[in-house]
């Protein structure tokens, strides 16, 4: 069965362009989606204190366009197929990551404005807009040093570790507090527990 979901969030790591052995372009990045709800008593949106983390995979022309268009902190809307992937690391510990194979992706215009540039012939980026990035081989995602695939948290020391999944902004408006917490190994569980605290920014002005 195919599960299609739509997620709103912020780009948490720089999109990375890769290439399969069949020369198919693939771009992946981490997405932080902060949960909010409307409080009728306060008459405003409030933070629920939970952040969901996803790995977003884009293919072919979308892969090129994402690398040319998105940066860390950009608010986006993504629709695609949900995939739960299980894998084992070098020590044999089993892990699980939540991924979205994107079918549609764009900027969240509730958070700002954007200027659209039509791609070149057959959907490829025009020569002027084509991204100049080196290609990595596909398969390194599970070992990506920017984040912990088991918990979804950005690792301590990463250049993106201060991205606020609530606002998409870095450090200046409220950094993340606390890195990944290593839980005791549980042979009956595939998940590692993690905890993250994020400062809350008032977004009433944006209408969110």
From TrEMBL:
What CDD domains does the annotation carry? SSB_OBF
Compositionally biased tracts (Basic and acidic residues)? 182-195
The answer to whether UniProt assigns keyword Transmembrane helix to this entry is: no
User: Which GO molecular-function terms appear in the entry?
Assistant: single-stranded DNA binding
Could you confirm whether the keyword ATP-binding appears in this record?
no
GO cellular component term, pick one: nucleoid
Q: What is this protein called?
A: Single-stranded DNA-binding protein
Which species is this UniProt entry from? Answer: Kocuria soli
- Organism classification: Bacteria, Bacillati, Actinomycetota, Actinomycetes, Micrococcales
């Amino acid at each position: 069965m195919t599960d299609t979901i739509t997620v709103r969030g912020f780009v948490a790591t720089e999109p990375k362009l890769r290439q399969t052995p069949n020369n198919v372009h693939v771009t992946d990045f981490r997405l932080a989606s902060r949960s909010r709800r409307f409080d009728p008593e306060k008459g405003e949106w409030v933070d629920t204190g939970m952040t969901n983390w996803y790995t977003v995979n884009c293919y072919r022309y979308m892969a090129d366009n994402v690398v040319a268009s998105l940066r860390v902190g950009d608010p986006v809307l993504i629709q695609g197929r949900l995939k739960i992937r299980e894998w084992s690391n070098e020590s044999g510990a089993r892990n699980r990551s939540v991924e979205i194979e994107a079918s549609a992706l764009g900027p969240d215009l509730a958070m700002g404005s954007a200027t659209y540039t039509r791609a070149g012939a057959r959907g490829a980026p025009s020569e002027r807009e084509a991204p100049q990035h080196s290609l990595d081989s596909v398969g390194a995602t599970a070992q990506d040093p920017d984040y912990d695939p088991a918990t979804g948290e950005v690792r301590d020391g990463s250049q993106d570790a201060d991205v606020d999944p609530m606002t998409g902004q870095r450090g200046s408006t409220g950094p993340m507090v606390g890195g990944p917490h290593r839980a005791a190994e549980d042979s009956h569980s595939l998940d590692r527990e993690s905890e993250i605290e994020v400062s809350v920014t008032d977004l009433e002005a944006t209408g969110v």
